[in-house]
């Protein structure tokens, strides 16, 4: 059986994008489960000494992880993160220091925590939740496209490619919006935290691994959507080749 690579190419891109999107969603929901692929990391250098706050908080789509910073080599300024625990995952998660920490930790003499940073997280709460919703919609759309492809293999129909194209396009749109929101949070929000935390030993850093995964997923779906469009509206509109005449008719014509 000859496999038409052009027909299955959209499904291949959708499958890879599906795995990457799941990684973006479930990263950090358990300890050592892609805890390095965070949206951003909040550093509180005073944490872990006299206060009850951890040295860092890596914020993900549905949870956050926290832990301590360990020196890589004696005398070296670089440090490695040691994740000690992760929060329970929530579908509409939004990190809020004033809620995650005990009273007095986020604002006290032991941790020089600017109150305005808590206000920043509160202001971006709906933004982060809308990002999570777009990721979930994208996962559903990609899954539907894969199901449509499986059905087309079992019971081929001429119009089934249109459903695959629609789901891929919808998924690409959803993941693109989610990736744009993640990029805004990674750059604009991190810059805002660093500006407000300047002089207070509070800083933030965006996660380049997460951004790489989310944009790779959106890009793959976009390529898959274009390929599916060509299969449906270009190749699909071409007339099917006429069947070859029977051998007996060819011999009769020669006589």
Automatic annotation (TrEMBL):
Transmembrane segment boundaries: 132-155, 167-190, 210-234
Assigned GO CC terms: cell cortex of cell tip; plasma membrane
Cited Pfam families: SUR7 (PF06687)
Record has Membrane as a keyword: yes
GO biological process, alphabetically ordered: fungal-type cell wall organization
UniProt keywords, alphabetically: Membrane, Transmembrane, Transmembrane helix
Tagged with keyword Flavoprotein: no
Matching InterPro entries: SUR7/Rim9-like_fungi (IPR009571), SUR7_domain (IPR052413)
Protein name: Actin cortical patch SUR7/pH-response regulator PalI
């Amino acid at each position: 059986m000859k496999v038409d690579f052009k027909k299955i190419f959209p499904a291949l891109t959708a499958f890879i994008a599906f795995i990457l999107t799941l990684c973006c969603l479930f990263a950090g929901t358990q300890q050592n489960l892609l805890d390095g692929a965070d949206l951003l990391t909040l550093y509180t250098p005073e944490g872990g000494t006299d206060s009850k706050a951890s040295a860092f908080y890596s914020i993900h789509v549905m949870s956050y992880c926290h832990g301590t910073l360990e020196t890589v080599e004696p005398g070296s300024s670089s440090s490695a993160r040691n994740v000690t625990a992760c929060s329970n995952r929530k579908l509409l998660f939004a990190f809020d220091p004033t809620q995650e920490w005990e009273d007095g930790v986020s604002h006290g003499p032991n941790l020089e925590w600017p109150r305005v940073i808590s206000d920043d997280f509160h202001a971006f709460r709906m933004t982060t939740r809308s990002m999570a919703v777009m990721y979930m919609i994208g996962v559903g759309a990609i899954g539907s496209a894969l199901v449509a492809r499986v059905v087309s293999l079992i019971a081929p129909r001429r119009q089934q490619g249109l459903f695959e194209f629609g789901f891929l396009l919808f998924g690409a749109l959803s993941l693109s919006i989610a990736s744009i929101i993640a990029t805004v949070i990674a750059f604009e929000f991190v810059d805002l935290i660093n500006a407000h935390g300047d002089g207070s030993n509070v800083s933030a850093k965006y996660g380049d691994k997460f951004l790489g995964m989310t944009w790779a997923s959106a890009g793959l779906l976009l390529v898959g959507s274009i390929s599916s469009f060509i299969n449906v509206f270009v190749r699909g509109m071409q007339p099917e080749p006429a069947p070859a005449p029977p051998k007996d008719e060819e011999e009769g014509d020669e006589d």
